[in-house]
Amino acid sequence: MMTNPVRKITQGQFSFLPELTDAEISLQIEYGLSRGYAWSIEYTDDPHPRNTYWEMFGMPMFDLKDAAGVLMELQNCRKTFPQHYIRLIAFDSTRGVESIAMSFMVNRPVSEPGFGLIRQEAGGRTIRYTVHGYAADRARRRARWEWQVMSVARFAPCT
Q1: What's the pLDDT at 26?
Q2: What distance in Å separates the CA atoms of residue 32 and residue 96, rounded to the nearest whole number?
Q3: Is 92 exposed, middle or buried (0-12, 13-18, 19+ CB in 10 A)?
Q4: Bridge-partner residues for 97, per DSSP?
């Protein structure tokens, strides 16, 4: 049986380790740069396991040769999205490979919403399971609240 001893969302490399410090992140970036990888930064508020396409922060850094540039962009992303999941991705552009070589989270929200498992019974004794991210509920509630505020504002009497 698999257990999650760290009680946090685990995606990418180093997921079961304690959070990486900026010095440790810099060492990983240097390793990737020494292998010729291009770095990019992505963020999301819904890290569902099937949500593989996160929002990209800035442009991919193909021409960088120093980890300081990637760390500077990472700090800007952390300032802009402090309560989001942020990950670094190293892209190997070697002909024939052309895919992600490294990926790891470098920022998490203070409170991680987590996931629920929904069980459905179907015909023929079939049981289906769905993973449901609680972050989607939060976004849905926020959208409903904004719609209600806009509806009230639209119909409010002018004085």
Answers
A1: 94
A2: 18
A3: middle
A4: none
